[in-house]
Every structure is written in C-alpha cells, then in structure tokens.
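Lecture notes, structural biology module. Today: joint structure prediction for complexes of two components.
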Amino acid sequence: QVQLVQSGSELKKPGASVKVSCKASGYTFSRYAIIWVRQAPGQGLEWMGWINTNTGNPTYAQGFTGRFVFSLDTSVNTAYVQISNLKAEDTAIYYCARDCSGGGCDDAFDVWGQGTLVTVSS
Amino acid sequence: QSALTQPASVSGSLGQSVILSCTGTSGDIGSYKTVSWYQQHPGKAPKLIIYEGSKRPSGVSDRFSASQSGITASLIVSGLQADDEAVYYCCSYAGRTTWVFGGGTKLAVL
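The predicted structure, tokenised, for the full assembly:
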C-alpha cells in the first residue's frame, strides 16, 4: 500500500545536526512532491517547505532557511531533512507528507509519515 | 506568511452539527480555491479529510463537508460522533509554491 515511513526518534545536544528520513513505497516516488511539516510540543502544524522529487529542487518556508536542508536519494525512494546547529526550539515532531497534486487532487497532502520526534537537550 | 486563523476550540453534543471556520487573506484563501482540511487525533499523524475546498478523499465519511467563500473556509461536521473529537487544521496554497496551515481547532464532543 501507499505509505511513508520515517526514521526513529532522535535525542541531540544543542549545536549538533540531525537527519530525518522519509521512505516512500507503493507509488512512483518521482511523481509526487514531498513536503515537510513541523509540530512543536502542544502546538499546531507548520509548513516547512517541499522538495520536487523529480528535479530535487527544494523550496523553504520563511523561518526554515539556512539550517534546514531537504534532499533525496531516489535510488531508495527516500526524502530527507537535515537540521544543523540544533537549538532547543527545534524540539518537535517532524512529518513528511505526499503532495497529491497531479494525482487526482490539487494542493493537498494525502499520505503522511508517522512523524519523527527530535528532542534537543543538553 | 502568517498562519490562517482558526478558533482555538469548538464543542458540540453527540449527533449535533458544528462549523469550524478558517480565515485567511486575499493572498491565500481569497485567491486559491484549494483549501484542505486535516484531522489529527492525539499522538497520530494528520489525516486529509477535505481537499480542493470541498472534496472528500475516498473513505472519508460524508458527515464531513466544507466550503469556502472570500477569505474564509468552513468545515461542517454533522452527526457528531465521539471519534470526531480531534484537532482540525485548515491549509491553503499561498502562492509562489508555498502553503500555510491554520493554528488548529480542537473539537470537543460533549
């Protein structure tokens, strides 16, 4: 079935880096963009940006430029977000999701990963 | 890009109907008829329940309906059930390949 499976929880110290993965299966990976969403503890969803899985071109939302990098490994149908110079305020659940545009819907996110908790603490 | 505005909480009794609102601007909801809605239960990933303003994905109950007019979108949940208790987020395209979520509304079923 169509699914996105994310890597497991991470505990990091301030200043370190983390790379979260999102493995797609059950569909043609290059056909649908992948978005990233952050959810801080007890807070709402925040759209971080997206990556074109055909070209690898990333787009970042305001507030997610500089320390955040989206990437792909198309050989294993996997998208990544790497966060460098981690800060306490980066503590959150990070979700990947599929943009279903071009596949029967527009501008919506129809398949979600289970989320990855990143905790930044000294 | 500022978040879309949603009331923090809404409540309704079992069997009743409730309306959840989502207010944006002329740069997002007012310009694009593609608001989507997501349901999130505690500890779970969000789930798409409405796309393109009013369409339901396969498998989503027809008790969920939605509309949008001007800079406001609305989600109507009819025949409230206990499992409808969750947080609901709206989302809109905001131009230049960016999207924006609302702050979320916690729906309590009494």
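Point to remember: The longest strand of chain A covers residues 18-25.
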